[in-house]
Amino acid sequence: MSSIPFWESSPLLWDTVTIGGYTLPGVASLKGDITRRVETANVVGEDGTRATDLGYGGAQVTVTLQLWEQVHLDAYTQIAEHIRPRLGGKPDALDVLHPALAAVGIRSLIVFRLGLPEKTQQKGVYEVQIELQEFVPQKKGTVKAITTSTAASVDVSDPLSTMVTAQDKAPSAAPPPPTGKK
């Protein structure tokens, strides 16, 4: 295991983020959480709540860029074209490099919101926020989709495909023909 550089001895590394091979301009800072999905419910007649573990929720990370020069804006504009969310299709998981992410083992994220440059209180400085979600590849195999009335097994060969429930499948047999009565 390699050592993560300390922010006092390597401040430039801590002020820089690389997404999909593109080093973001200006000064970057990160904020985020690694979550576990837990559903809680109050139970009538019992004290406290009941918790159901729903599994690993992944990491949500917000990168805030401070831009103050024309070269920062030019670089951001070019990079944004390559990493921004797209209409249709599946999102691309991008390699993201930053010491804080490396410290917790996060390497691949999906850009799900690319903010617009916003003026700050500091004269001449604009900020851009980029929100990322950790990409956790779904295991190939069978996933159970549960609906209110039935559960179905679905083959998951494409991890980002939309799940199909039993209600979405075609009926296994044709319905009986109508009777001759009117």
Describe this structure in words.
This protein has helices at 11-14, 70-83, 99-103; strands at residues 18-19, 22-23, 27-42, 49-67, 93-97, 108-114, 118-119, 126-134, 141-146, 151-156. With 182 residues, the chain is mostly beta strands. Helix content is 13%, strand content 41%. It has two domains: 11-134, Beta Barrel (Elongation Factor Tu (Ef-tu), domain 3); 138-171, no CATH class.
Question: What's this model, at a glance?
Answer:
It is built from 3 helices and 10 strands. By secondary structure, it is mainly beta.
What is the secondary structure topology, with strand pairs?
Blueprint: H1 11-14, E1 18-19, E2 22-23, E3 27-42, E4 49-67, H2 70-83, E5 93-97, H3 99-103, E6 108-114, E7 118-119, E8 126-134, E9 141-146, E10 151-156
Antiparallel strand pairs: 1-2, 1-5, 3-4, 4-8, 5-6, 6-8, 7-8, 9-10
